[in-house]
Amino acid sequence: MPLEEKEIRLTKSGRAFSGFLELTLNADQILMLQKLGKKRLLRPGERLLSVGSIVDRVYILKAGAAEILAPGSNGEGQMMKAVGPGEILGLTEALAGTTSNFSISATSESVFTEIPREEFITFLRKDADMCFDLVSMMATAFVQCIHVVSG
Amino acid sequence: MKSLSTLEVRHKCQNCDLRADRFFCNFSDPVLQSFYSLKITNVYPKGATLFSEGEPSSGVYMLCQGRVKLSTYSKDGKALILRIAEAGELLGLSAAISDSPHEATSEVLDQCQINFVRRLDLLRFLQEKAEAGLSALHQLSRNYHTAYTQVCSLGLSATVGDKLIKLLLGWCESSNGGNGKIDLKLTFSHEEIAEMIGTSRETVTRLLKELRERDLITMEGSNLCICDHKRLEEAVGTRVRPRSQAVTSVTRSQ
Questions:
Q1: Chain A CB within 8 Å of residue B145 CB
Q2: What are the angstrom distances between the C-alpha of B148 and each of A37, A99, A128, B141?
Q3: What's the pLDDT band for A6 if we cut at 50, 70, 90?
Q4: Can you list the domains of chain B with their CATH numbers?
Q5: Top-confidence residue, B156 or B251
Q6: What are the beta bridge partners of residue B22?
Q7: pLDDT band at residue B108, thresholds of 50, 70 and 90?
Q8: pLDDT band, residue B238 (cuts 50/70/90)
Q9: Chain A residue closest to B148 (CA)?
Q10: For chain A, where are the alpha helices, taking DSSP H only?
Q11: Cross-chain CB nearest to A132 (options B100, B133, B154)
């Protein structure tokens, strides 16, 4: 199955859908942001976020791997995407003030940097370059998301 | 000559009394000054199209007053309303930043005041002013979550009846109701509601009638009252069936 179809998929029954926005930071950006937060280690299978949980932190996957799960028709999580180092997680939820649409679990020994929402926003307010990079990334991912959905 | 505009147009951003917390342009004075120097103010009448799906982006449209309908069209020309943009939103933002064609068509629902900013001016503004970049991030995040909710509602609802109930419940989120009763002012036609949930006008009319018959809603003109929010929530997943038929079936089973 082509990657795009796998990322956002409305099956014939309309049950499987993932609108996960992939936002991947480069090494310099990770280095800059890791100073703001603290390290969090997760073992395989440990959960970072659950569907419906309040997102008051932004997470950066520094090392390891995680899977993004969306609720399926039977109430169990369906694997929608695997993400690797550099992925920034919980950003849109933290900024929009919404709860998490996905569950995120580590699939290997993983290291995350967790940054409280307010500290992240305070940092962005002073760093126009980082802000613009994130805006560009998010806009591009959003447009791709819409194109896949609208076919 | 008769004037088209009945709006009181705010030209000066600095002393604009429309600006609220969630407005894209809710900047500090120096940033607001920069934004003011970039924008071109226009008033658009009801029915005007700001941009069309597939068109290249020339800039963004700051919606100061009024409402704008954002729709997408299927290959066979069927319209689907993605959302209704309210005052404070920046329209065409993702297309302008990613330099891609507009993903939706925007049509003015009520007379609007729009501040247009050219694409290259916007990019420079966002690159130079972190505050503006942050505001754009907030806006994009909200747009993404609205779109996500909409697609989930359309894709994960088993029936058109459920889609309609979820749409009504979504409208309740911004309303305050006591004792589970919520009054809404319906500003959309049945045709527009149909385009929001991907069905026909006739189906919407029939389903609203059925919801009335089940005492889940009442309607008087453009006033729609949700009798009990919790009961309406519980109606998702249950077959929409008029009360009279339900009673008949109970009688038969006895």
A1: yes
A2: 28, 12, 27, 10
A3: very low
A4: 16-156 (2.60.120.10), 160-253 (1.10.10.10)
A5: B156
A6: none
A7: very high
A8: confident
A9: A19
A10: 3-7, 27-34, 91-96, 117-126, 128-150
A11: B133
